[in-house]
Amino acid sequence: MKIIISGGRQSKSSLSYFNKEWSSGVSGVIFEYDTDSKKIEEMFTYETPKKYRAEKDYSISFKSGSIDNNKLYITTLTEILIISLPNYKLIDRISLNLFNDLHHVVHENNFLYIVVTGLDLVLQYDLIKKRVSNYYNCFREADTWDRFDKNKDYRKLNTTKPHFSHPNHVTLHNNKVYITRYKQEDVLVYEKKGKYIGSIKLGNGIPHDGSIFNNEFVYTTVTGKIIKVDISKEKINKIIDLNKFAKEDCSLGWCRGYNSAKNLNYVGFSRIRPTKFIENIKWLGSKMTDKYKLKMPTRVEIYDNKYSKIIDTIELERVGLNWVFSILKY
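The chain above was modelled as a monomer; its predicted structure follows.
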């Protein structure tokens, strides 16, 4: 089995670590990890063309994606790439003027569901008609088009921060759209046709990934927790705190990226950048001391089925992946 890991590579400049996250990536990178041989190999490297990005102080990175029918659907900040597997050939590229800080994409029945974090929005895109077919507002307290202009090219902006909801991930189930929201620490729920249903309160830190495993929604929080939610009741079943594996005075890192394969759990951690550290100082809590070190490297930890121990670690910085977004299996 192959584990596919997506993320970004930062500049080799000594200053790049201290840059804002939207101006530090120089390329998107995809690696494959073979679960049998334990070898990791760089499979695809990509730079966003100039016409699809800001003129300066831009960042290039892969964010989160999904796999369907031997195709990898993956986001850059301003594009959706469709890549064939296992040969990693670029099949198609989609880039719309509304794209800014894309975070995730999933494919179902010739529709793409695209998380446009920069506009606090999820789009439904029709691959046959090649147009947006629905919008899911992720900050319902304000109309999306009162805040943003449909005719503006948001690909040319480095950032639209501050975000009001900052959606991260989208999951589809039973004709519903489930969207994790950073600011509200919840999961927004819509019908696919666009009707708002409600939300699932998660708490326990900023949620990021959301996927379905063994009849449960499994969500990660960037603070190092795994939250399992009953699909039918939409209630939390279990919370697993991975911080029990943290070293003294050292955070695990920015927890993002999850998958389950062969009774093992693959969880991604990215080195905490100073901008992330300052922005999220509250959740670091007691770890904010004079001895605090932002030293834990970018990696994927492999836990046993019950999260009782770490089986192995996939070191990513040594192969040139500075932050991880997606962990997929193929």
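Helices lie at 144-147, 274-279, 281-284.
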